[in-house]
Request: fold
Amino acid sequence: KVGWYNAILQPAFHLPYPDDTLAFVVLSTPSMFDKALKPFVNKERLKIIRDPVDQCVSHHLSRVKEKFPDQKVDVIFDYEILPSRKPKFLAQTAAHVAGAAYYYQRKDVKLDPWGKKKIYGVCIHPKYGGWFAIRGLLLFPDIQVLFLEQSAPVDCVSTEEKRIELLEQFNFHWQDGHYRDIIEVKERYSEEQKAYFATPPAERFRLLGLTQEAQ
Reply:
């Protein structure tokens, strides 16, 4: 419910819908790269002008909307921002309240070792660890779910030591990706996918076999 999300945020970040409005958080799993992105790039090769992943996600969520011709469906993507430069929605908070992934933050550590350092939180999925992404929000403004019960996300990094390790790794060594394996995972990114996301965005076209003209 939109109300679960709005209840824990400042008004500036509230979604402008009634509390009982139905919303879905959309995650991409490790297999997205092979099952969705590569086929999309091969098919839409000449139409890719921005970011292939963003366009792929947009394409698939447009297809979801088409499945509900009688419903109003609003889509907010993870990369969209407001004129104020704030994100249109806080993806990790949304994933947490939807029960999709646990958003570990500084407040989840009792004996905080970081002093005045800025420490960012990170979502961990019980199956994929940090090998996933939050891609968007699907909202159904005309569907009110008064009796929907909230499911808590799985607290899979349950010890103080592991939480400190997770936040340390994410904040100070995120490039090496070790934070993603803070728990035992069922699936992770392929080597090809790791290379893709480790490459600066402007150079990723080449990895997908896209020409300069396609850019």
Remarks:
- The longest strand covers residues 133-144.
- The chain is about 30% helix and 15% strand.
- The longest helix spans residues 52-66.
